[in-house]
Amino acid sequence: MNIYDDYNKYIIENEELLNYLKSSNSSVLYCLADVLEVLDYVYKKYVDKVKIDNELEEIFEIGFGYLSNCLIDINTYYNDYFGKDIILFNKYSTLIIYSILLDDVKGYLLSEERLTEERSEMLDKAAKLIEGTLINIKEINPEDVAEIEDILEMVLPKKHNYKPVYAVFAMIAEELGIY
Fold first, then answer.
1. 59 and 38 Cβ atoms separated by less than 8 Å
2. What does the alpha-carbon distance between residue 88 and residue 100 come to, in Å, rounded to a whole number?
3. Cα–Cα distances in angstroms (integers) from residue 96 to residues 78, 152, 177, in the given order
4. Are residues 119 and 155 in contact, defined by beta-carbon separation less than 8 angstroms?
5. Burial, 130: exposed, middle or buried (Cβ in 10 Å; 0-12, 13-18, 19+)?
6. How many other CB atoms sit within 10 Å of the CB of residue 44?
7. I want to staple 173 with a disulfide (CB 3.0 to 4.6 A). Which of 6, 124, 141, 178 is the partner?
8. What's the CA gap between 179 and 40, in Å, rounded?
């Protein structure tokens, strides 16, 4: 089996959840939609036996890794925290998106060798605020959201060239002419 067959198998395994997200117009799809579009585009090339260049192959690997990480967390929230209740899941979608973003930021800082102990602790604090609300299914505290946003702003000052993976994949989708 190769990465493309793994991707197809993974999509089939997560098809029910992805369909629930789509049918409920979940805002969590904001973090996944363009990634899925690009991955499907490359996968179709593979199925059609069209040559996939190294750049597109690397894009596929990055996107599939990102998607896998996101869906692991999303599945945990959906199945374990919210008992497969898509309405309840969507009620907390803002925090779920922040959780995905925190993981993405941490990965970026790590890859850029800029993840200091202080930044790591700040990101962990934000993650704990999110987890505390999601695990206990508490009302979303606007002060917690503001604190999460402040933490993100502090760990990613304007001088960073950070773009979330989902934003990069939106640009890739546009460049490939998918939209």
1. yes
2. 18
3. 10, 15, 29
4. yes
5. buried
6. 11
7. 178
8. 13
Task: Quick: pLDDT tens for 60-99.
Answer: 999 999 999 999 999 999 999 999 999 999 999 999 999 9
Q: How far apart are CA 101 and CA 151, in angstroms?
A: 12
Task: Quote the pLDDT of residue 1.
Answer: 80
pLDDT digits (tens, 9 = 90+) for 6-60: 999 999 999 999 999 999 999 999 999 999 999 999 999 999 999 999 999 999 9
CB 109 within 8 A of CB 155: yes
- pTM for the structure as a whole: 0.94
Report how far apart the first and last C-alpha atoms of the chain are (Å, whole number): 30
Amino acid at 145: V
Closest CA to 72 of 125, 10, 126: 10
- Within 76-116, residue ranges assigned H as helices are 86-91, 93-111
pLDDT digits (tens, 9 = 90+) for 115-148: 999 999 999 999 999 999 999 999 999 999 999 9
Q: Which of 171, 150, 170, 157 is nearest to 98 (CA)?
A: 150
What's the CA gap between 70 and 101, in Å, rounded? Answer: 10
CB distance 163 to 156 below 8 Å: no
